[in-house]
């Protein structure tokens, strides 16, 4: 018991040195320490945006809870003064984490990977990590767009078709699908 108390004391001391506020949750099932945001993350998203979809996939894979903030691009909501304060370029996605605002999907993925290390998106091996940069969160939305928006015949691309089928089996990917977003029903 004393060793556990010493370990917890060291963890708390290290956490206090971090430059951002977090909550820690200890998982009794051997899951270790899980880093969670102090306040709920906010994702400004448009349900059909492939860039937004890749961030939704990453958030789901990492098990991070977030508030979905719909931005209707067809109605020009990305050009509103409120949204332009978050992202002067007027693009989605935008992730707000406390006082940090990120507006590029790749930057958001890298930020999430560094700040919330549980359920890593990338392997530790450098070669495998390089390969993963090209796949999963980036590839899945592009395949989906090719199939749904352009009616691409996937029989010519058996590997991509198998990947798409595998992605579609994963809850993190299913939950990130455009049709499963709160703003999807507005335009459907």
From TrEMBL:
Q: What is its EC number?
A: 2.5.1.18
The processes (GO biological process) annotated in the record are: glutathione metabolic process; L-phenylalanine catabolic process
Q: Which reaction does it catalyse?
A: RX + glutathione = an S-substituted glutathione + a halide anion + H(+)
In terms of InterPro entries, this protein maps to: Glutathione-S-Trfase_C_sf, Glutathione_S-Trfase, Glutathione_S-Trfase_N, GST_Zeta_N, Thioredoxin-like_sf
Question: Where does the UniProt annotation place the signal sequence?
Answer: none
The family database entries (Gene3D superfamilies) matched by this protein are listed as:
1.20.1050.10, Glutaredoxin (3.40.30.10)
Lineage, top-rank taxon, reads: Eukaryota
> Which PROSITE patterns does UniProt cross-reference here?
GST_NTER
Q: Give the GO molecular function terms.
A: glutathione transferase activity; maleylacetoacetate isomerase activity
Q: Which residues form the GST N-terminal domain?
A: 39-120
Q: Which Pfam families match?
A: GST_N_3
- Asked if the Swiss-Prot or TrEMBL record annotates the protein with the keyword Nuclease, the reply is no
- Tell me the keywords, alphabetical order: Transferase
What CDD domains does the annotation carry?
Answer: GST_N_Zeta (cd03042)
**Which family is this sequence assigned to?**
Belongs to the GST superfamily. Zeta family.
List the protein's name. glutathione transferase
UniProt source species? Camellia sinensis var. sinensis (China tea)
